[in-house]
Amino acid sequence: MQTVSEETVDVVDNHGNELSYTFKLEQAGDVCRMLIEAADTAEKTGQKQVATVLRAQAEMIEQGLHVTDHKAPDLMLDIAAFHQKFGLEYNGKPRMLDTELFGFRSKFMDEELDEWKDEQTGLVEALTSDDGSPDHRRIAHGLHQQLDALVDLVYVALGTAYLQFGPEVFHEAWRRVQSANMKKVRCTNADDSKRGSTFDVVKPEGWEAPDHHDLVKDHAHKAYRHSVEANGANQ
Question: DSSP labels for 133-161?
Answer without folding.
Answer: S--HHHHHHHHHHHHHHHHHHHHHHHHHH
